[in-house]
Amino acid sequence: MRTGSEPATARSALRMRLWLSVWGLLWFGGGTAAFAVVGRVGWAALCGALALVALVNLAVVVHRMRQGPRFQPGRDVPPYLPPSRR
């Protein structure tokens, strides 16, 4: 949640997400191929779907990394208000 007072040194674990996505893409891609070879169509489809999820995550991470470390939303995006206490 964005409050408008985040620290200037806040960091994201994008590099870790990048390598985990690559690792998952390799495993699920290999699983898709292996299950397709042995004739397990259901398992191959499941691994293929998970490989697709890993690929989309990889694309999002690369996009965010290319935005740079100092990316800030524009002036038209107001900071979120902190949740009100009941």
Protein traits:
86 residues; mainly alpha
The arrangement of helices and strands along the chain is: HH
What is the C-alpha radius of gyration, as a whole number of Å? 19 Å
Largest sheet: none
Total beta strands = 0
Oligomeric composition of the shown chains: single chain
Q: Approximately what portion of the residues adopt beta-strand conformation?
A: under 5%
Shape: elongated
Number of helices: 2
| Low-pLDDT residue intervals, each spanning 5 or more residues | none
Which structural class matches the secondary elements?
mainly alpha
The residue-averaged pLDDT reads 84
Kindly report how far apart the N and C termini lie: 18 Å
Percentage of residues assigned to helices: 55-70%
Characterise the protein shown here.
By secondary structure, this protein is mostly helical. The chain has two helices and no strands. The longest helix is centred in the middle third of the chain and has 27 residues, at 41-67. The protein is elongated, with a radius of gyration of 19 Å. The relative contact order is 0.18. The model has no long low-confidence stretch (mean pLDDT 84).
Brief account:
The chain has 86 residues and is an all-alpha fold. The chain has 2 helices and no strands.
